């Protein structure tokens, strides 16, 4: 795997997570990987090995590869097949059968910690929380209107959270112990909001907490609309309430695999719909969410579909969260922008 692309005069390479999303896919193919990630990323390979322990560094980078995965555009005579990596900061536009979307993954640390553990989906168990959100929501990090608003046309996480708090819709536990008390079957809560500035949920318990809720509130991230918590929610059958269904490939469908909103009023309507939904409808949506994750977001399943195509010249589209790349993008049209 080679990574050589840069932008302008910037010396920083692509985001670590971006490269790991590609490596996660290769790991699903059961491949041994030689990683040429550039002089400025010498420690990236060491960190990635902590997450993907099965990967082995080949002794020589000059041998003939069965497959070369690279973001360079020149030819490589030492590779039997080449997969090109195409970085994108928007939902990719697929133009042909050679285009493949690299699944946007869970938090890399979570992938490593629970690599061999079954997902705690509990599809038939009553879940004690109807709607959950847990994460950061500082104004400094999550009110970037020049990115989320003007560039991508979405309301920021900070604005959405401020709206929910002002309406008194959320219950906010102060401690991890208080949150755990809410997970008891007798403690039904409509909307539990965990601000991780107060306390954090241990990473090895994170999916179990998410799986205790029917719905997960998925507002935009800090520089992209999409955030890894939507992937983690769907992995355990927790239905996303989101403003960016089009950022998954294929897009989520309103009323089938998500509840969608784009304004404060439609957010209120989505919250009301989640609170009023009967158990049978929730179970039906949950099954659709799990099927979407298993088919399109589980990197192992995607890798199995790619295994017969090892000899084809594919183009891998991967979201690049490197901040300077996103900053360099042109703004979206004024007509579709959210007012600041």
Describe this structure as you would to a colleague.
By secondary structure, the protein is of the alpha/beta class. The chain folds into 2 domains: 16-103 and 298-327, no CATH class; 129-296, Glycogen Phosphorylase B (Rossmann fold, 3-Layer(aba) Sandwich). Helix content is 33%, strand content 13%. The chain has helices spanning 16-28, 42-51, 108-113, 139-142, 145-149, 157-166, 176-182, 206-210, 228-235, 264-276, 279-297, 299-306, 323-327, and strands at 68-70, 82-88, 99-101, 129-135, 189-195, 213-218, 239-242, 259-260, 315-319. A 5-stranded parallel sheet has the order 5-4-6-7-8. It has a 4-stranded parallel sheet with strand order 1-2-9-3, covered by helices on one side. α9 (228-235) links the parallel β6 and β7 (239-242). The protein is globular and about 60 Å long. The two termini are 41 Å apart.
Task: Quickly list its features.
340 residues, alpha/beta, Rossmann fold, five-stranded parallel beta sheet, 13% strand, globular
Summarize the structure.
The chain has 13 helices and nine strands. With 340 residues, the protein is α/β, with parallel strands linked by helices. It folds into two domains: 118 residues, no CATH class; 168 residues, Glycogen Phosphorylase B (Rossmann fold), CATH 3.40.50.2000.
Structural class: alpha/beta
% residues in beta strands: 5-15%
* Poorly predicted spans: 4-12, 37-62
As for the number of domains, it is 2
Major sheet details: 5 strands, parallel
The total count of strands amounts to 9
